[in-house]
Design brief:
Elements: E1 7-9, E2 19-21, H1 32-42, E3 49-53, H2 59-66, E4 71-76, H3 79-91, E5 98-102, H4 105-114, E6 119-124, H5 132-143, E7 146-157, E8 168-176, E9 179-186
Parallel strand pairs: 3-4, 3-6, 4-5, 6-7
Antiparallel strand pairs: 1-2, 7-9, 8-9
Helix pairs in contact: 4-5
């Protein structure tokens, strides 16, 4: 059982070892093992702009900032979760390079696109067993927010296939128990 007092730790980078809270309820944060493997595969994030969709506690975006991302935008819909996410960013001292967008992922992505925001790395950790991955991919492609060569990372349950999206090419998938982390790259013409 996860409560508001449950904490995760940052795995690598300048915030390594710092702890942050997990929101109460149905939030399923990415495990330490999966985050360590994923960010080891992503390599150098210096100067990268990150979009963390279905942000929850902010674990993925926080890890990206700790490893050199210049800024991160976190999208989350649940009001209780947003409160914990904002507190995590403030407590870690990274709220000046992090922005939080409250609301539905598809609508938020389209708003960011209209504002001409561009991202180099998109981290997607939606509720398992939902249609959200396909909705997120559709929104990303339809909004033109992916910088040329942007990396898109999807965390999903092994029982569900990754969606296909025109404009995103699959790079690889790694399985960690019931979790699959799939990486995609955006085409040069968005």
């Amino acid at each position: 059982m996860r409560g508001a007092d449950h904490r995760l730790r940052v795995i690598g980078g300048y915030l390594s070892g710092r702890r942050f809270r997990v929101p109460p309820g149905e939030v399923r944060p990415t495990s330490d093992r999966v985050r360590e493997s994923l960010f080891g595969r992503l390599g150098d994030l210096d100067g990268v702009r990150v979009l963390d969709l279905y942000a929850g506690s902010g674990a993925l975006g926080i890890e990206a900032i700790s490893r050199g991302a210049v800024e991160a935008t976190f999208v989350e819909q649940d009001a209780r979760t947003l409160k914990v996410l904002r507190a995590n960013l403030a407590e870690l001292g990274i709220d000046s390079i992090a922005s939080v967008v409250a609301g539905d992922v598809s609508a938020a992505v389209h708003r960011l696109g209209r504002a001409q925001e561009r991202f180099d790395l998109v981290l997607i950790d939606p509720p398992y067993a939902s249609e959200e991955p396909a909705r997120a991919f559709e929104a990303l492609i339809g909004s033109a927010i992916l910088a040329p060569g942007a990396m898109v990372v999807l965390e999903r349950d092994r029982r569900h296939a990754s969606p296909h999206a025109e404009g995103l090419s699959a790079l690889d998938e790694r399985r960690y128990g019931d979790t699959v982390v799939a990486r995609f790259i955006a085409g040069q013409a968005q």
